[in-house]
Amino acid sequence: SLNPNLPTIFIVGDSTARNKADLGWGDHFAHYFDLSRVNVANRAIAGRSSRSYIDEGSWDRVLAEMKPGDYVLLQMGHNDGGTPLSANFKGRGSGKGIGNESVEIPIPRPYKTGPLAGKTMETLHTYGWYNRKYIADARAKGATPILLTVTIRDIWTPGPDGKLHIERDMGFRTYDYEIAAEEHVPIVDMATVAADKFEMLGPETTKLLFPIDHTHTSAVGAEMNAASVVTALRNAKSPLVAYLKTP
Predict the structure, then answer these.
(1) Is pLDDT above 80 for 82?
(2) Residue 145 phi/psi, 5° resolution?
(3) Cβ burial, residue 14 (10 Å; 0-12/13-18/19+)
(4) What are the E-state strand segments in the chain?
(5) What letter does residue 63 receive in the DSSP assignment?
(6) CA-wise closest residue to 228 among 189, 199, 187
(7) Do the Cβ atoms of 111 and 94 come closer than 8 Å?
């Protein structure tokens, strides 16, 4: 349970932040902080997109816990891979882009909880729209939203130098930077920090940190990703740095 007298850092994301015991970076994040001065609450849920986390009511539950002075680290994308908005849209993702366009679609499977419980249709929005909703809702609670770039996958391609390079963007980086600029929200680039580390290790060693598939790390990989988030917070001169343990 969260100490009501302390600010809380909420993590809102997908399986790369929380996945079984200790396989998401969010489970390795708290030990970097002085927990006598700040709470760290990992509220990421495996398999969620920016849209489904809201649709099922998980975001409403986080908002119910939130108070003025809290922080929200927002990191979606792995399950958002969508197509442009259309009435035939399938899957759990969000619409491509960051615009305000929307479309009515049948709900793929009924929701038992959340704002869509009992409904058969939903208004589908873009990735940018859902992220702006997180930002606006957090601010309305007096909390500070912070965008994180998407966690890195173990996918390598040859570069112009003939060497293998790890994927640094799965299609959301530009969107995240555009949303951050438009909403005047800090963006913390953990993707670049993590990618630089994996490239130093090289493809063979990095593969050992991704024993399941190209997206999900081992506990050791999750610890490395948590450290990358902390480094990226320092690089961004985030106010959260003030709550880190003194090295």
Answers:
(1) no
(2) -80, 140
(3) buried
(4) 8-12, 39-42, 71-74, 103-106, 121-124, 144-148, 156-158, 164-166, 187-188
(5) H
(6) 189
(7) no
Beta bridge partners of 126: 95
The one-letter amino acid at 160: P
Q: 3-state class of 103 per DSSP?
A: strand
Yes or no: say if 119 and 113 are a contact pair by the CB < 8 Å rule.
no
C-alpha 154/C-alpha 175 separation (Å) is: 21
Helices (H), 154-189: 173-183
pLDDT digits (tens, 9 = 90+) for 29-42: 999 999 999 999 99
Pull the structure tokens for residue 186: 């800090």
Pick left, alpha or beta for residue 240 (phi over 0 → left; psi -120 to 50 → alpha; otherwise beta): alpha
Nearest to 163 by CA among 202, 205, 192: 202
**0.90 surpassed by pTM:** yes
**What confidence category does residue 110 fall into, taking pLDDT thresholds of 50, 70 and 90?**
confident
**CA–CA distance, 77 with 86 (Å, rounded to integer):** 19
User: Please, which contacts does 88-96 make with residues 24 or more away whose CB atoms are closer than 8 Å?
Assistant: 89/124, 92/47, 92/48, 92/49, 92/51, 92/52, 93/49, 93/51, 94/49, 94/50, 94/51, 94/124, 94/125, 94/126, 94/127, 94/129, 94/130, 95/124, 95/125, 95/126, 95/127, 95/129, 96/126, 96/127
Q: Which amino acid is at 116?
A: L
Residue 17: DSSP 8-state:
T
